[in-house]
Amino acid sequence: MMLTKFRLMFLSATILLILILSIFFYQPRWLLKIIVKVAPGVYYFSETTDKIVAVTIDDGPNTITTPKILETLSKNDTKATFFIISERLDKNEEIVENIINNGHEIGNHLVKDEKSIFLSKEEFEDKFLTADKSLNQFLLYESSKVT
């Protein structure tokens, strides 16, 4: 009897964990619509009937992988948004210029690669604006507005 109760509890906990992980992994539209109501100033998705894909490249620039990614995107006539970690700009400015000159966008990925969910609002804003200032040296990068 005790073993059966344990198995039932273990099975229930496993199912619950799988459900929670799948919600975070698949990010269902119904959940995003709830989040939008809680944080209306944050952009999560755009309603569209067009079949489109947004290609994003995270944690750049990287001297080895970024040029290869740019070459692959060029061969496939595809544009992407590269999220740049500003502490990686030093000695990699040419790579970022190549990203922009090839018609891609750059985005702000803060100063270093860290879990921003653990930062206070003030820490996040400071790191975001510091990175924003570094990225503004590239003429096609538009300064983001933080309110």
Description:
- The structure is a single chain.
- The protein has helices spanning 2-26, 29-38, 65-75, 93-101, 121-135; strands at residues 56-60, 81-84, 105-108.
- By secondary structure, the chain is mainly α.
- It has two domains: 2-38; 56-135, TIM Barrel (Alpha-Beta Barrel), CATH 3.20.20.370.
- The protein starts with a helix and ends in a 12-residue tail after the last helix.
Describe the structure concisely for a colleague:
The protein is mostly helical. It is built from 5 helices and 3 strands; from the N terminus they run ααβαβαβα.
CATH topology value of the largest domain: TIM Barrel
Instruction: Name the shape in a single word.
Output: elongated
Largest sheet: 3 strands, parallel
- Name the strands of the widest sheet in spatial order: 1-2-3
The radius of gyration is 20 Å
- Report the end-to-end length measured between terminal Cα atoms: 58 Å
